[in-house]
Amino acid sequence: MDILRQLRRPEVIVVFLALAASLASLGNGFVYDDVPIILQNRVVHNLAASERIWHSAYWPAGWLYRPLTIQLFALQWAAGNGSPLAFHVVSILLMAATALLFWRLARRCLPPLPALIGSALFAVHPVHVESVGNVVGQAELLAAACALLAVERYLAWREHGAPGPLQRTALAAVTLIAIISKETGYAIPPLLVLAEILLAGRGTGVRKQYRAVAPTLFLQAGVALAGVLVRIIVLGPTTGAGPSAAFTGLSTGERALGMLSVVPEWFRLLIWPVHLQAEYGPPGIPMRDAFGPAHFLGTLLLGLSLVLVVVAWRRVPLIAFGIGWAFLTLLPVSNILTPTGVILAERTLFLPSAGAMLAVAGVLALPLSRLEIGAGRPMAIAWVLLAGVVLAGAIHSSRRQLVWKEPAGFVRHLESDAPRTYRAQLVASHFYAETGQYQAAERSARRALDLYQLDPRVYEQLGQMLRRQGRCGEAVPVLADGVTRFPDETVVRSRLFECALAVGDTGRARRVAEEGVRLGRTEFRASLERLRARTGAPGAPSVPPR
Questions:
Q1: Is 328 among the domain residues?
Q2: Is 538 left (phi over 0), alpha (psi -120 to 50) or beta?
Q3: How many whole angstroms separate alpha carbon 481 and alpha carbon 489?
Q4: What is the pTM of this model?
Q5: Which residue, among 384, 380, 451, has the nearest Cα to 422 in the 3D structure?
Q6: What is the Cα gyration radius of the chain?
Q7: Residue 225 belongs to what domain range?
C-alpha cells in the first residue's frame, strides 16, 4: 500500500510520463548534428584534451560557445567508450529531471491539480523530442533545467524576504551554468525580473521591491556580462552561428517582417504539435515574401497574446507570466536581435514550451477553482479528454523518438516531413552524396533548387552531383546560373571553372577565373596558371583585384 501511495504522488506521475515519452530514444545512434559535434569531434574523444574545450568553439567552424555541454559530451564518451547509449541515457535522465523541476515551479504557483495537469502536458510535449532524441539537444535540456530551477528557487526565497548572499550566489551559479551550456541561458535574468514583477513582488511598493531584489539582479547582470566577455575573448566579436541564407542582405526590420511568418508555426508547435519536422524554412515559411496571409496571421496571434497578457496581468498573473516567459525565451532565436543559423528549430522551443504550459495551466486553473472536482458529467468528460491528450502526447513523442534512430531513416523522414523546405532536401542530398548514392543526391538537389534559388549551396550541390556522374555538360548551365546570382561565391565559381575545362570550353573557364581574380579571389590566379599550362595562353591578368 505504501508503494502504491508513493506511485500516486504527482511528482512520480510527472517523471513517469517524461520517461514514457523518452525511453524509445535509448536505441538511437548519432544522427545529424551529433555527427560533427560528437562523432567527428576529436576534442570530445579525449578527456586529456579537456582544456581545449574551454578555449574553442562549439561548432568546428567556430560558431557559438558552449564549453560545459562539450565537456559533458567528453565525459559521456569516456564513460560509454564512445557508445551512443551512454549519451541517450543522460538525455532521458535530464528530461525527467527537467519535468520534475517544472512540476516544482508549477506547484509553487498553482493549486495541486492544475499544476499536475500543466506538468503532465510538459512532460509528454512532442516538441521536446528533438532535444531528447538527438544528443546535441542536451544543451537545451541543461539550459531549461537551470532556468526552471532558478525561477523556482527565486520565488521560494522571495517568500521569506530578500534572497541572502548565499542564495544570490547560488542563483548566479545556476545562471552561469546555463549560459555556458546554451545561449538561452541569457534569458534567466529577464525571467527573474518578470517573476519579481508578476509573482513575487506583487502588492509591495516599488522602492521596497527594488531594495529587496537589486543585489540579486545586479549580480545576475554581472554574470550575463561576464559570459558575453568570455565568449568574445575566446571566439572574437562574432554574433553566433552563420546566418541562414534567408536572412542574407536583410535589415533588422526586414528580418522582423519575415519572422512574422514564423509566428504561426511557433504557436502551432507549442499548442498542437501534431506534425513535426527537423527542418523549417522557405518556401514553406515565406521569409522573404511580401506581407501575406502567414504574416497577417502571425501579427494577429501576437496581438491576441498581448491582449491576453494585459487582461491577465492583474487577474491571473501566472498566465501573463507564462506568455512573457515564452516570448522572452523566443527572443534570442527570433533572428531580430541578430540573424542566426536557423529560422525555426523544434529544439529552440524547449524552454519556451515551459512558459506556454505554465500559461495553459493558469488558464485551466480558472474553471477548476470554480467546479467541484469529480462532480458531474461535464467534469468526467473533461477528465477523459485531458487524459486522452496526455496519452496521445506520450505516444506521439515515443514514436517520434525513432525518427532519430539512425541517419538513413532520419533523412527519409526529413524528405517526407518537409517537402516544402528546401534545406531539408539539401541536407538529404548531402547525405546521399556522402554515402555514394549520387542519383538520389541529384534528385534531392534538384528538389532543393526548384524550391529555392536564393542560397548558393543549392547550385553548388546540384552542379557537384552532376559533375561526379561525369555530366559536366549538364552541370555548366546550373553552375553558371549560380555564378550569375552569387558572383562572390568561390565554391560555385570554382566548380564552374572545373566543369568548363572538362567539357573543353576553355574560353568560359578563362572568363570565370579572370572575373574571380577581379573580385579579389586570388586562388583563381592558380586556376589561370593551370589554364595557361594547358592551352599555352597568357596567364593571370594584370588587372588588380577590386
A1: yes
A2: beta
A3: 12
A4: 0.92
A5: 451
A6: 26
A7: 2-403
